[in-house]
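COURSE: Structural Biology Practicum
ASSIGNMENT: Worksheet 4, Part C
STUDENT ID: 0417
INSTRUCTIONS: Below are two proteins. For each, the amino acid sequence is given first, followed by its structure token string. Answer the questions at the end about the second protein only.

PROTEIN I
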Amino acid sequence: MENLRPSPAISVNSDTTIREALRIMKEHNVGSVLINSYSPPHQLEGIFTERDLLKWVSDIEKNNAWDKSIATIMTKRMITLNVLEIDRAAETMIKHNFRHVPIVYDSEDGRSHVAGVISMRDLFKGFVAERKQKTILEQFTSKRVLVLARQRSERELQSKLLESHVNLVFHQQDFEGMGLDPAQVVPDVLSSDLFVMDLDHFSADSWVKVLKKILSEKKRPPVFIVYDPVQQDPRSVLALKQLSQGAVIHVFPKPINLLEYLRQMERSL
């Protein structure tokens, strides 16, 4: 499970009272605390969990033992996993009927140190995250993204960003000069799931016509516009900003904020 990560370990010394250990668990909203030896080097001696509390609560109440040390009721029989074995956490929990497994690593001096704790809650969160990621990726890869760009560098950028994630298609129109023919471009745009248009090296009159035609269609894909503010006249830049603020299209001036660019694409697809 690639998304599985240990939670931070909450530790107490073995002479900590049961009352104090429970207070710490409540404060940190955790289902377990690790018990370390009282004396240095404070090696891991046991674990106390919500299940231990249910097991002992009647005896604790009966004998008013809340101020006894947590070591008297901790679970000494522990199984730890090295950080390199974290993918075995689910198998280990099921096999030994545990709900919490300490994760450790070895330092250069050969001593074992606690890296965290994997709980059933962590497993569930990792499972949900993995399924969500897989679902998003499956939805993403089935989409057709059409790119209209004259610059080789822009085509290469889009390929590196998107080619492995979507069905990426570059428009094959034979460009004459700096002009664009809406009749040749728009039908292909409308049949795509997302359209990326690099305005640079096209005349303003030309790309405005194409853009107006696309935006006049009721059923149109999300439109992403990429442009260099230096190459566009002030009126065009202002118009693009207004369209972006109105959430009509997604506009990205160069240099592109790649993280936001991909995030917006994922949301749009």
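PROTEIN II
(use this one for the questions)
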Amino acid sequence: MRNKEMIIKKMEDSKKIVREAFAKYSIKDLSIAWTGGKDSTLVLEAIYQVCQEDGLPMPKCFCIDEGDMFKEVRDFITENEKKYGVQIEYIHNDDVSKAAGGKLGATVKISDLNKRNRAEIERLGYEEDEFDYEPESFVGNHLMKTATLNMYLEESKVKGFFEGIRWDEQGSRANETFFSPREKTEYNPEHMRLCPILHFTERDVWDAHFEYNIPICSLYKNGYRSLGARITTSKTTDVPAWEQDLENTDERGGRRQDKEGLMEKLRELGYM
């Protein structure tokens, strides 16, 4: 590890953010977005450490199932729910997947969707009558992730949730804040997004995993560097993620690139 003291300091700073969130909100009003990825698992670990040290219960957890999850990711979450004392709630936009017959790549007619999803598509400015059911396309990403998240926030009535985004991960996230308030709109309730690992770099995340013995999904060991939908996420090497040239190559290079180019717009619409 390059600098053990620095990693410990960054982790303690993350835990300060968690404690500040717990001081502002009742734990029952908070939730954790756990994707099974390296970043959200680090967030989960920081929250777990605070709860263990302060004798507090863990907040509830949710995972957005966009319809094309890696089996390895789902297995990883199942294997580690007990370790962290949580029970994951998978959230999914059933209306969209039903219209697609549950088949990736199938054509979805917008007229077959419910009023809420039709309104979300209108919000995008999408003018076609149909789209392909693919979770990381522009329309699919919005419906299967952002709209699904907003519906969860409305139904669960949580006041804030923790998410594992970082300043160095993607250009559209470079100006995010540790406490990121979202005003009420016709599409989402007022809520707070809590981002306790913004100050970590990709290298820091891996150093923290090994310093604190945090579980690692097997896909990273097999060369995947950033995890998204199964059919639009690839690896370029078999070298474990943490052994790759993290400083001089693109972390999200194995992700669908039209989505990456639209990330600014997606985040304006509420994407994490």
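ANSWER KEY EXCERPT:
Q1: Residues 55 and 179 are 24 Å apart (CA to CA).
Q2: Strands lie at 30-33, 60-64, 88-91, 107-109, 130-132, 160-162, 179-182, 191-194.
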